[in-house]
Specification:
66% helix, 2 domains, Hypothetical protein af1432, single chain, elongated, mainly alpha, 12 helices
């Protein structure tokens, strides 16, 4: 591309070759991004334009930043020789290695969350897939509400682990057919605080521990475990509460049959301002409308959720 645009071989002259070098690099970025986006679009089932925009939004700044680095490598090589290039690239290679380790660690966290959520569901067959669906709804809600990517990622983990405390609930309660007695319900309510204690040592979850602890609080202050009210309830907990309730309403349980998405929307509206944060309900209704326009129900997200 560089030569095709008019660049010349030999010593790099900044004023003569800079424009050709930059244009060649930019063309490479755009073409490469287009080809990669085709693969992403096919994998995720999205449009090519959408995948390309998303890919460019994430990769274009870093790709453009590499252009002056390439020029610097050429100039260093011409002036000081190969050792100077090695001195420049070695720290970058180490940084890349560290980034790869970080990405691997994130994948381990995701697999750990999925494994723990499966452990919950093995104890309660009626909630099969519940934690994953809550996680996916929570992620979509977080995106709809404009939360930053790091908080959306935490919503993914918190959604998977929101019921982790049920591991500590007796089998006689967990596997009971029918409604709980008052005493059984009080014991079941302990799963939220118990779950928060169980994940406290997972430093990567950060404030998601509080989201797990408070995902059964209610907007009007009548929830548990602490009876928090309104804005005192962490936003992540309010999001998970809405996602959790929507999936519970639209899934079969031992004591009730699933209701339709339309009926669940009405239930969310009826309880907006009492059980649920009104702003979260507004966002959830938008999420439901978008999902209803898709063919697959329940939702199916491919690849990374956030």
């Amino acid at each position: 591309t560089y030569y095709g645009l008019g660049g010349t071989a030999g010593a790099f002259a900044f004023t003569r070759d800079m424009a050709f070098f930059a244009l060649g690099a930019l063309a490479d970025v755009l073409v490469n991004g287009y080809l990669v986006s085709q693969v992403i679009a096919l994998y995720e089932g999205n449009s090519l334009v959408s995948a390309w925009r998303k890919n460019l939004r994430w990769t274009l700044p870093s790709k453009i930043a590499v252009i002056p680095l390439g020029i610097l490598v050429v100039v260093l090589y011409q002036v000081y020789g190969l050792p100077s290039v090695a001195m420049l690239l070695l720290p970058l290679a180490l940084a890349r290695y560290s980034l790869d380790r970080f990405r691997l660690l994130r994948e381990v966290y995701a697999e750990l969350g999925a494994t723990l959520s499966q452990a919950i569901e093995h104890r309660d067959g009626y909630t099969h897939g519940h934690s994953l669906r809550v996680s996916q709804y929570a992620v979509l809600l977080g995106k709809e509400m404009g939360l930053p990517d790091d908080e959306v990622e935490l919503l993914h983990y918190a959604g998977l682990l929101h019921d982790i405390g049920k591991i500590g609930i007796k089998d006689s309660i967990m596997k009971k057919d029918g409604r709980y007695t008052v005493e059984e319900y009080e014991e079941m309510k302990g799963h939220a605080a118990m779950g928060a204690e169980m994940v406290r040592g997972m430093k990567f979850l950060g404030k998601a521990e509080k989201w797990i602890r408070h995902h059964h609080e209610r907007w009007d202050g009548t929830g548990y475990p602490q009876g928090l009210k309104g804005q005192d309830i962490p936003l992540g907990a309010r999001i998970i509460a809405c996602a959790d309730s929507f999936d519970a309403m639209t899934s079969d349980r031992p004591y009730k049959d699933a209701i339709t998405w339309e009926a669940a929307e009405k239930e969310l509206l009826d309880k907006s301002g009492t059980q649920f944060d009104p702003e979260v309900v507004k966002a959830m209704l938008k999420v439901i409308d978008k999902l209803a326009a898709q063919k697959d129900k329940p939702i199916k997200l491919r690849g990374r959720a956030w």
